[in-house]
Amino acid sequence: MPDLTNLNLSEFANKLSFLAEDAMHPSLFVSIRYVRCLADALPARDKPGLASLLRAARINRASLSSAEAFITPRQLDDLLLIARERTGRSDVGLELGLRIPATAHEALGLAAMSAPSVDAALRVVERHYPLISGLYKMVYTRGGSGGTIRFLAACALNSETRLMHADILVGSFHAQLSRPLAAALSPVTMTFGAERPRHARRYFEMAPGGIEFLPDMPDLVRIFLPNADLDKRPAMANVQTFRRAERTCRQQLVRLQARNSWRGWTEDWIRSVEYASPNLKAAAAAGNCSTRTLDRRLREEGTSFRKVVAEVRHQQAMEWLGEGHARVSDVAARLGYNEVSNFSRAFRRATGKSPRCARTRS
């Protein structure tokens, strides 16, 4: 039996949370693009402290420039709590939400903006919500006098940050739907599954239709829109754009759901790196973990970073050469080779033929 006499419970709980976080499914992680939005939300006087804020939350600043980078739910919580402490503001989550534009959601944001109606926009977002975040679940139902949008936690949330998560959702909803349609929408009503915070007056500015606080409600927040609003046409509505964006969303969701492993995430990260050679240090930075941690995760799945790089780069080489119009030198550059000859030798070792021959045959 281990000696528990001198066990520090808070330290033990902290270690357990790190272990749980390390085993967490990649779908629960938070895209780095939302951290960029939080950086934008900081008051000008706090901008110089951004680097120390990221360090305190164990977030590698280099990850901000990586398309496939993410942070863990724990890192997001730490970031929110530290930002609240340093700014002295209880509405940090709300400020973050208000600074998340629809364009931050890429194809899904375009689908929502170009939808033929507010109802269609809400439905397409609900169907593809994992593309926005795996931390929350969105449930949209319509019936009777209107429609209700429910946001629930997809995993256990820290009680200290629960309201801040609700604030993120409310702020982003307002920024992406209510604010653009402010002149056309009726007063929105909201119900929070939390106690009334000290910044509650800000909610009434966004939802003059009414606010209610129900601490025992399991939902983070519920938002009600009357039928008249749901049938309204967004300013950027365009059927062709909507269909193209929705098709892209379906494809992205399939890829996301197939990404059920660290190998899957690593493959996506490697594909996002062009005109540079992917390396373990940069990949770990994008994943906001140590190189040792990422290496161990991949080994536990029976592979290695070097092997995944070789396989993905080979797939990309075959794909780009197969397009027929790309020059071998261009393909080599996109794959991160400084010399075409180095690429040619590596390609010949892997396939037994030259890149030029592969391009001709394709």
From TrEMBL:
The keyword Transcription regulation applies. One of its GO terms (molecular function) is DNA-binding transcription factor activity. One of its GO terms (cellular component) is cytosol. Residues 279-361 form the HTH araC/xylS-type domain. Pfam families: Arabinose_bd (PF12625), HTH_18 (PF12833). Signal peptide: none annotated. The keyword Manganese does not apply. Keywords: DNA-binding, Transcription, Transcription regulation. This is Transcriptional regulator, AraC family. It comes from Bradyrhizobium erythrophlei.
